[in-house]
Every structure is written in C-alpha cells, then in structure tokens.
Amino acid sequence: MNEVIDQIATKAGIAPDLAEKAVGMILGFLQREAPDGPVTKMIESIPGATDLVAQYNGEETGGGLLGGLLSAVGGGGGLMALGQQLMSSGLSMGEISSLAKETIATARQHAGDEVVDQVVNSVPGLHQFI
C-alpha cells in the first residue's frame, strides 16, 4: 500500500502519513455508504486498501461541533461529516478535493471505471467532489 499512498500523496501534494489516514477514512466512508458488492470489489482491488479501511474506517471521533450536530440530526452527516473529519485531521478543503480525486483515479486504475462509477453514483452528492 505504501506505493499507492505515496502516489496519491505526491499527486495531491500532502504528506504520506496524512494521505494514508485520509484515504483510509474516505474508503471507510464509501464502504459504509455505497452498495456492498461494488464497493467491496473496489476496495479489494486496491493493494492494501482493505487494511487501511480496517485501521482508519472513517470512524474517528471528535468531528467538532458540526460533526456532533450532524450526527444528532441524521445518522452521521454523510459527506459533510467526512469533510469535517478530514479537516479535523489537518487537511484544507483544496487538499481534501485533490485527495478525493486522486483516490478515485487510483481506484479506477485498479478496479476499473465500471465498478468505481457504480460506487460513485450510489453515494448522493459524491460526483460533485470528484
């Protein structure tokens, strides 16, 4: 996975350790939000991604006031809650956007366009960010 993370980090312009955590959180979010078949196939296709999801799984606590409010009104807040978690990890909105685009591009390299499109199209609003 280090090679994949290094590639994503370099293209997104962020530190590899932060990229590793953020990619794990993004993939964990997709695992929770997207249909099981396509997202499982996508994650399993990316070398080391299953381990990242297990390690980071996007379940980081804290999320700040916004994350807490979103959780209180509707089961986790979806993309907004993920964005808040990533910002709490030290990423700017621009870095999050770059990282998301590079993560999806990497997923396409390993899992193919059809599988990734099924995942992206199944998560409301995701296509606007990638």
What descriptive keywords fit this protein?
single chain; 130 residues; mainly alpha
Number of strands: 0
**How many separate helices?**
8
Instruction: Report the structural category.
Output: mainly alpha
**Overall average residue pLDDT:** 85
Q: What form results from the Cα inertia axes?
A: globular
Q: Round the Cα radius of gyration to an integer and report it.
A: 14 Å
Largest sheet properties: none
Portion in beta strands: under 5%
**Multimeric state:** single chain
Please tell me about this protein's structure.
The two termini are 22 Å apart. The protein contains eight helices and no strands. It has one domain. The protein is mainly α and 130 residues long. The chain has helices spanning 2-12, 16-33, 36-45, 49-56, 64-74, 78-88, 93-111, 113-122.
